[in-house]
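**Backbone shape codes:**
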Amino acid sequence: QLSTILKKLKSIREKRPQPHTDHKIITEWNGLMISALCLGYRVTAEVKYLQAASGAATYLKTHLYKTGKLHRRAVDEEIKHDGVVSDYAHLIAGLMDLYQADWNSQWLSFALELQAAQDRLFWDPKRGGYFDTANHAELPFERSKDYDDNALLNANGVSTINLLRLHQWYLKKEYKEKASQIMASTSLHLTKQPFALATLARAAV
């Protein structure tokens, strides 16, 4: 039987050296996970998904947000590296999804705090859009901006959606203005290669 074969195969494999386990906690990835868990909760009504999302958000707020800035990753007790714009964008999106799942205002307050920090640290006041790295980062090269989606959704695209959601909720023109500036700065690229900028295309509609 198949179950007998699988059991035997498992016993043989367990004798081999085990692969290394990556214990890093990445802020950006956890933001994505929070959104996914909230979607799972809305679809299935399984409270375990909401509890997992809430636990992840609490951990990030407690351990990876220090002195008004996000950190990129944690390994055991070691917190290291300043967060990049994708950490902020995806966590803000996750927090807004979590707020809409359990209506706990602490998540929305945290999202607003992070949005203010993202604007302060990453916004390009001359051309619009968010730089990949913060304005205090000591880099030997010019700060860059990216708008294309790759393995993960692009931070400027996600941020545009975040800003539009916040504008819908608060009607603060600064949110809509920033979203509009991002869209305007990428309009030509978006027209020519919409599939490369799928997140921004979603924001446009």
Observations:
- The first helix runs from residue 2 to 13.
